[in-house]
Design goal:
mainly alpha
């Protein structure tokens, strides 16, 4: 029995992975209507007077425990929920694959996401917003559960 060589086998595995990725992107892209696609694409724009895209702004979490940060965190969770992507049924997608795709959207640069094909870009943004829908609520709950800061007592010398 003759087995394929290493380079041939690597090419076959690469082709299978690419086909699986394309199928994932197409499946997620197919869940979106034209309005949702426009909403997701708008996340990659940099508003006038701002230095970062909407996606960059929304994926940045709270940095300290305070009242204003709690309000900001709740507003952020509401803003992401208002995108409506958490309502889409992604239960047919393996959670590991969805998490991998969202990790790319959370960690990647918005300018790089713009360069991808429509299916890949929008699938990544959908996975990212679904992930952020949960993460923003978790961030707000973490702020609620954080122990209150106690003032330090200074002893007079």
């Amino acid at each position: 029995m003759l087995l394929p060589g290493e380079s041939r086998l690597a090419r076959l595995v690469g082709n299978v992975r690419e086909t699986a990725n394309q199928r994932l992107w197409d499946t997620l892209y197919g869940l979106l209507n034209s309005g949702q696609r426009a909403v997701l694409d708008s996340l990659l724009t940099v508003p006038a007077g701002s230095r970062v895209s909407e996606l960059d702004r929304l994926r940045r979490g709270p940095v300290r425990v305070s009242g204003p940060q709690m309000k900001w965190s709740l507003d952020r969770a509401e803003e992401i929920a208002d995108l409506g992507m958490g309502e889409l049924d992604v239960s047919g997608i393996p959670p590991r694959r969805l998490a991998e795709l969202s990790r790319y959207g959370v960690d990647g640069k918005a300018t790089l996401l713009k360069r991808h094909s429509d299916a890949r870009r929008l699938a990544t943004l959908l996975a990212t917003t679904v992930h952020l829908t949960t993460r923003t609520v978790d961030d707000a709950l973490d702020l609620l559960e954080a122990p209150p800061r106690t003032p330090t007592l200074c002893s007079a010398s």
